[in-house]
Amino acid sequence: MPPETTPPGVPRVALLVTCLADLFRPTVAQAALRLLDAAGCTVRVPERQTCCGQPAFNSGDRVDAVAQARFMVEALEAESVDYVVAPSGSCASHIRHQYPILLGDDPAWAGRARELADKTHELLSFLVDRLGWTDVPGRLDAQVTYHDTCSGVRELGVKAQPRALMARVEGLAVTELAAPEECCGFGGTFCVKYPDISGRMAGDKADDVVATGAGMVLGGDMGCLLNIAGMLKRRGSSVQVRHVAEVLAGLTDAAPPIGEGTEAP
Amino acid sequence: MHVTSRRFKDNVRGAVNDANLRQSLATMKTGFRVKRGLAVAALPEFEALREAGKAIKTHTLEHLDHYLEHFEARVLERGGHVHWAPDAETARRAVLDICRTHGAKTVTKGKSMVAEEIELNAFLEGHGIRPVETDLGEYIIQLRHELPSHIIAPAIHVRKSQVASTFRESHPQFPADRPLEEPRELLDEARTVLREHFLGADVGITGANFLVAETGSSVIVTNEGNGDLTQLLPRVHIVVTSIEKVVPTLEDTGTLLRLLARSATGQIMSSYTTVSTGPRRPDDPDGPDHFHVVLLDNGRSRLLGGEFQDVLRCIRCAACINHCPVYGAVGGHAYGSVYPGPIGSVLTPGLASLEESASLPNASTLCGRCEEVCPMKIPLPRMLRHWREQEFARHLTPARTRWGLRAWAFAARRPWLYRLGTGLAGRLLSRLGRGRGRLARLPLAGGWTQVRDLPVPPPGGTFMARYKRGETR
Ligand code: SF4
Fold first, then answer.
1. Closest to A196 (Cβ–Cβ): which among B13, B367, B372?
2. What is the 3-state secondary structure of chain B?
3. Start-end ranges of CATH 3.40.50.10420 in chain B?
């Protein structure tokens, strides 16, 4: 457990685990903890956190989106920290950009939402832009490629940071995709509502990945990674899929790649 | 506005498996996108230009009544006529009346999305008047009895070989043994046939990219010069356009033109930019004897003053369409509206009805690419979400989705229940995955597993459970 009192100057961070990492990929949150720790932060994991509320927000369910925003403001406020950090561009962006709007009309909540929004960051950009830290512990002999996730790159400007961090991983060679910023077709509930379109988009992304010749594709959002892994594995591809934090933290031994098991395929 | 967006899902299935369409759309991506990228990169002040363009349109929309009246007054001063059309039927009637007054049998038409919106061709044909499209793309789809699939490249879905066979079928005078394969040969053949029509038409109909309030002018841009021949040669010129096209001054038009061509095709300027102001004056060398402007509303004024007002800033450059991954996967026809892509999915529910087009705002990943490239900085993803909110509020969202969301939201605010649910789900999924780490099929998750495998959680429980057990350091 983290110490109760933090020495001055040490950033106090609350980890927003994100619902997808919590359920589908615990090693991503574990990797985030390890990286934040290595970067000199004290990290807490707010106990009551669940999901940021995007499923409701993007489905037009404003009432539940607002209620969920309130719930999460309260859950994340429970720890007195300087920052809230998430291993996901989409969840961090939702809190940063949408919470102040969703709760903006309510005087009891507007200020609290604004305050939370201002201190919430996506993991990779937090490490590089806020802390100026790139001293990652990971080592991996691999040729990889990188998918820029939509909310990360377009809403938060996460582009150079993952590349700066990957460049510090010993043994790692990065080959760029032909269209790194093209949406993979996940889109939250979109992928199950419109499987034909989503499948076409994921297929194009898989083609792009395979064409690089890389043995592994990395990215910073679990939704996209589940989608890309699902498509590559459906096609029988041997290309591995991982969240970039796992590679940066040197946690690739903690779990098989996404969509792969302990048994040989 | 006639929309068939209710069939969206069925349309999509055909579209994603259409090999011809795949090829056409791939060409679009490499063509339009690359060219726009280069044009924008070559203009350091592009961002400032966007702000300026946005400000012009925002200001105009705030004072739309003023500028429209101003425009009308200038048109009248120059001897032209303005016809206010609250809906499509009134607009079609106005065009028909003008044609009848002048005894028109054939009308030539420059490309006009508003004419497509009001389905003018079918209406004129039904009243014994023959419309001939003079934009090459529009001409091709007219011969093929199709609708445009893109707002600036209406025949983008048609392959070159298909154009050749369409020409051979529809141009009986074309010798069967003459080659018709190269773009040059196709163009020459179209030109030969169209030239006759230009000379024989009684009325020329064009759209307008902009209407200039200070001068009463309409402005069109083309790359084929067909617009000029359409509006200069016949005795009557009818501009069929819509109310949000008006801008205050010629200077403003210049600013918007600089944005338009770069965003659309990556050109600095379109090949032809034509300004028409009233009928021919006594010492003009050419021009029509009569000048009419049909100004369509058709739902636009309803959008003013609300959360969708900003969409009226649109200058129809199609950048959002060219960069949309969903459009890139399904093409334009699947949308079932003359306005496809992100702009169409925002505009169509506003102009037609949300009931008829409920699929469109949902058929987006909200990836944000459209807003990123839109020269007018229209927040298209936010607007798609606004429509989704209206659907939800008006119970147009399927009951299964509503109940699912309700159950999820109930649990997501009760951590103990949520942990119970995720714990069970995680264990179940990873057991079903049986060491393979993924599932090829899962009941109730057919939408996912229809096209891809579902990766399952590794054994060992959720992160929150592991953290509680102290296993995560
Ligand atoms: S919405 Fe923007 S990008 Fe799309 S056509 Fe209109 S102006 Fe162009």
1. B13
2. CCCCHHHHHHHHHHHHCCHHHHHHHHHHHHHHHHHHHHHHHCCCCHHHHHHHHHHHHHHHHHCHHHHHHHHHHHHHHCCCEEEEECCHHHHHHHHHHHHHHCCCCEEEECCCHHHHHCCHHHHHHHCCCEEEECCHHHHHHHHCCCCCCCCCCCCCCCCHHHHHHHHHHHCCCCCCCCCCCCHHHHHHHHHHHHHHHHHHCCEEEECCCEEECCCCEEEEEECCCHHHHHHHCCCEEEEEEEHHHEECCHHHHHHHHHHHHHHHCCCCCCCEEEEECCCCCCCCCCCCCEEEEEEECCCHHHHCCCCCHHHHHCCCCCHHHHCCHHHHHHCCHHHCCCCCHHHHHHHHHHHCCCCCCCHHHHCCCCCCHHHHHCCCCCCHHHHHHHHHHHHHHCCCCCHHHHHHHHHHHHHHCCHHHHHHHHHHHHHHHHHHCCCCCEECCCCCCHHHHCCCCEECCCCCCCHHHHHHCCCCC
3. 43-300
